[in-house]
Amino acid sequence: MVDEDTEMLPGDVSEAALHAEHLLGCRRNKVPLARTSQPRRRLSRIDHHAAKRAGRAAGWLVRFASLLSAAMLAAGTAAPALSGGRLHVSMSGSDVNEGTANAPLRTIQRAADLAQPGTTVHVAPGVYDETIHSYIDGTVDAPVRFVSDRQKAAVIRPSAADGAIWENSADHVIIEGFEIDGSNSPAVRVGIAAHGNHIRVRSNKVHHILQEGANDSNGGAGIVLNGGYYGEVDEHAVGNEVHHIGTAGSNRVHGIYHQSTGSIVNNLVHSNPGLIGIVLWHDAKDVTIANNTVCGNAVGISVGSGDWYQMRAPADNVTVVNNLVYDNASVGIQEHGVTGTRNVYRNNLVYGNGVNWSLQNGLTHHGTISADPGFVRYAAGERRDYRLLPNSPAIDAGTAAGAPPDDMDGLRRPYGAAPDIGAYEWRPARSPD
Questions:
Q1: pLDDT band at 260; cut points 50, 70, 90
Q2: Among 277, 382, 282, which residue's Cα sits nearest to residue 320?
Q3: Buried b (16+ CB within 10 A) or exposed e, 145-156
Q4: Scanning 298, 320, 394, 402, which has the fewest C-beta atoms within 10 Å of its C-beta?
């Protein structure tokens, strides 16, 4: 195991790694954690559960106040109807409405305030100028689900925001199908910051985050799965596209950042001039990184742990398979900080990076393809298409172990003898009817 004082990446990744408590400001039931020169205080399990209980209580108070205020509005205004487990949000709605399909709410935040276990929040197409904090827990059988009714057509584009565009602090929550656009908030730090047990952030498009290019210790990212601070587990980023996070020289800004347990699969992480496309740090372990396409970042994939919140432990039992890692300026796939000996690197296509591999503890990679991936279109200055050409060496070159059952487009894999490498499973073009 590598000593924690080992030299890190350019810019010192150990110090550069994101700290969730510094990324996010106070939102309803969260207390801001100021950065000081004192060592970070790790939460005991008692502290953690007390904080969670306090947060839940505050959340229910907010929800009760929202219901009460709605009931006290203009005469004849009905309280929101939650029967059936659905709430609807539309640009044409009003937050004094019931939240039905015929009387939708106006803001996603109002729906987040009213949600309860089993609620699905349906968001109609439109551009929503707001930031969101989801804080009501679901359950294992009744998660709270936020879904764009048409994929990527519900665009969340706040004006002059900072912190996170969407912050989740609840358990059993799914955030699915949104476009998270920071282009009107150049100082915003994070697209989606999600902590909680059993979280799914899937099929979202997150882009143009931290376009002012800040390079301070607060960092930034497209998606942060930041449950490590609270000892939370089972957090997943699936099928997201993350691009244009940070600017050149923003060496503390990343694409997808994970600090707990779970998975990062089927994501397209590209064109991020900050530092790392996909990074594990803090308390990360037991993570599957599979079938991602990671191109045009400073570093492709980085596996490590350090600056622990709970206890000192290596990033171990990490499975890195079927990833397509191409054209990253510094390193393709690397380990850094403290890592274990049970990490697996198998059947990845790693090519055209500054340095393709940099592993620790004597680990080696297996089944690696070192060849041009054969994208449909990758030329500079063109709108790129990261799907595979019929002669791509990535086709049928993956392993079934760790491969998700569907690709980024929702198509079943494998199509051929074995899964393809990368986020997209190749299929022949359909002939005209």
A1: very high
A2: 277
A3: bbbbeebeebbb
A4: 402
**331 within 8 A of 358, measured Cβ to Cβ:** yes
Taking 50 as the threshold, does the pLDDT of residue 71 lie above it? no
State the Cα–Cα distance between residues 173 and 384, nearest whole angstrom.
32
Higher pLDDT, 248 or 403: 403
pLDDT tops 90 at residue 248: no
Q: Is the CB of residue 420 less than 8 Å from the CB of residue 395?
A: yes
| Statement: residue 363 has pLDDT above 80 | yes
Q: State how far the Cα of 313 lies from the Cα of 280, in Å rounded to an integer.
A: 13
Q: What's residue 83's pLDDT?
A: 39
Radius of gyration of the chain (CA): 21
Q: Between the CA of residue 53 and those of 46, 57, 174, 293, 350, what are the distances in Å?
A: 11, 6, 21, 39, 45
- Output the six-digit token pair for 130: 């707001």
Rounded to whole angstroms, the Cα distance separating 136 from 144 reads: 8
Looking at residue 215, what is its pLDDT? Answer: 67
CA 290 to chain centre: 14
The answer, yes or no, to whether residue 47 has pLDDT greater than 60, is no
What length is written for the chain? Answer: 433
What is the Cα–Cα distance from 325 to 293, expressed in whole angstroms? Answer: 6
Give the tokens for residue 200: 């799914």
As a whole number, the mean pLDDT across the chain is: 84
- Does residue 23 carry a pLDDT above 90? no
Domains of the chain are 13-34+41-84+118-388 (2.160.20)
Q: Give the single-character DSSP code of 410.
A: S
